[in-house]
Amino acid sequence: MPARGTKIRNISAKTPALNASDTFCQYVLRMLCAEDKFPKRSRWLFGGKIADLVNDFHTCIFLANEIHVETARDRDERHHQLNMALAHLMAIDAKMNLAMRVLDIEPNKLEHYAKLANDCRSKLLAWKTSDEKRYGTPTFDGSISESVIAILVDMRQMLRAWIRPKECDVPVYDSDHIGGDG
User: Fold this and answer.
1) Residue 180 to residues 100, 131, 176, 177: CA-CA distances in angstroms?
2) Where do the DSSP E strands lie in the chain?
3) C-alpha span between 152 and 159 (Å, rounded)
4) CB-based contact 31:22 (threshold 8 Å)
5) Nearest Cα to Cα of residue 15 among 53, 48, 52, 62
6) pTM, entire model
7) Above pLDDT 90, what percent of the chain?
8) What does the pLDDT look like over 36-64, one tens digit per residue?
């Protein structure tokens, strides 16, 4: 219970994107507990991971909403949070599709989920577009792309080492010599 005199935000006065994402999150979390949609015997395979993604998605949405844009940095951070939310939404969708195939869930049991996910995605994209019109296109200082390039270079080096093990620094052992006398 809040302290006397403390104002509580009116939850029903949220933007359409917040309402859609809130409805989506509630539905998915309830669906994970539904025996007919997610069988209890195999729920452990996907339930926790999907719930974590839903919680991350929900956090990004509300963080984006709490950023009041006054500077270019605020605009960029809000844009980043919206992009992260969209990425989490795509990851949730990918996990749900995988769960549907692995657990043999009938597609008609996930129809309402798909409608909510599409509604949420379209409202988030509309919010992002509206922000770009209102505040301008985000600018990046280059640090993000440099870190991504560094990760890609590392991955490329690991792949090369894996594909052509003779060219890497780590010694390669034949199965005949493992545990043998040399």
Assistant:
1) 47, 65, 7, 5
2) none
3) 10
4) no
5) 62
6) 0.69
7) 45
8) 778 787 778 888 999 999 999 999 999 99
